[in-house]
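User: For my dataset I need records formatted as: sequence, then structure tokens, nothing else. Please produce one.
Assistant:
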Amino acid sequence: MMKSFIHVIKNGGDKVNSICYLNFFLFSFMFLVLLAANYPYSGSFIIKSIPVLSLSVLVFKNIKGSQGKLLFAGLLFSAAGDITLDLDRVKYFIPGLAFFLMAHIFYIMTMVKDYSFIKKKIIPAIFLIIYSSIAAYMLREIPQRMLIPVMLYVFVIFLMSMTALFMRSRSHMIFIGAVMFMISDTILAMNKFIYHIPYSTLFNISLYYGAQLLIVTGFLFEKKKIEE
């Protein structure tokens, strides 16, 4: 996986790509440092959204066709979710959830273009089913008005991870990113509805940024391998 990541950076092309990656790492680091020091803070929603917006520029510039447009749209919805939830995690929880739900639908539409059923992937698929079922079971007694939106979200992110698993990808980055996304959201939901998890936001955000980076870099790696 690390070789794939280095390959994309070295062969990423021009100055714009380098700046996008630099912005991602710089603002991710800034948000995490400020998160640990003093959160929430003024303008945090701007700093939080810049890393994913930087990845969206990378996708827009490097991945053409419908796949690039779908992935780009997914990243924009993710950034909208970042901003919405960071403004007020209580008041805007459902709108933020809706933005991320749309992001995952676009990710699924992007990934399904390379779908291929492979028997040897059945075992990890079973683990995904078990993990999602346990998460859904633990969240079954959340407030009634939240139950349907949250369960729908659990199903859609499970479907996104399953679609990533069965892609014809020569890199595991996309699937690992999808799983990290699912774990990140599980931590967020458990901490909000079930029990307090120490440093949950720090874990949640770290996994989230890593997930987005791996998904985008995985698609860029696939594009580079095809061109070669």
